[in-house]
Amino acid sequence: MDIVIYMREEDFRHKTDPGVYAYWSMGRVPKNFETLDKIYIAVQDKPKNCAVMGFVVCDMFNPNDLNGETLEWDGAT
Questions:
Q1: pLDDT by residue (tens digit) across 46-62?
Q2: Domain ranges of the chain
Q3: pTM over 0.85
Q4: Cα–Cα distance, 6 to 62 (Å, whole number)
Q5: Rounded to whole angstroms, how far apart are CA atoms 29 and 20?
Q6: Is the dihedral of CA 60, 63, 64, 69 positive or negative?
Q7: Cα distance between residue 44 and residue 26, in whole Å
Q8: Are the C-beta atoms of residues 65 and 6 closer than 8 Å to each other?
Q9: Alpha carbons 65 and 77: distance in angstroms, whole number
C-alpha cells in the first residue's frame, strides 16, 4: 500500500537533497503500509493547492515510534 505525505516546500527541498537520509514522523500510522512501499510527496505551493512532486521508496518503517522516525528514505531517490 502506498501513501501520500504533505509537507512544506522547504521541507521537500531538504528531504530530497542528494546525500540526505530523510525521515518523517507520523502521528497516525497507516494500516497495511510496509517497508519498500512508495511514499508520494505532495507540496502546497498556494493555499488550497497541492502538487505531488514525486515519490520515494520507504527504506524503514517503524510503526511503534510515533514521536520519532516513523518513515525513512534516501533523499537521493
A1: 667 888 888 989 999 88
A2: 3-74
A3: no
A4: 19
A5: 23
A6: positive
A7: 18
A8: no
A9: 23
DSSP string, 25-38: --SSPPTT--TT-E
A 10 A CB-CB count for 53 gives 15
Beta-carbon contacts of 62 under 8 Å, excluding residues fewer than 6 positions away, are 68, 69, 70
8-43: per-residue pLDDT in tens? 888 888 888 878 888 888 878 888 899 999 999 999
List all residues 6 or more positions away from 57 whose beta carbon is below 8 Å from its beta carbon: 36, 37, 38, 39, 73, 77
Which of 14, 33, 44, 17 shows the shortest CA–CA distance to 71? 33
Q: Whose grid coordinates read 505531488?
A: 52
Distance CA 73, CA 46 (A): 26
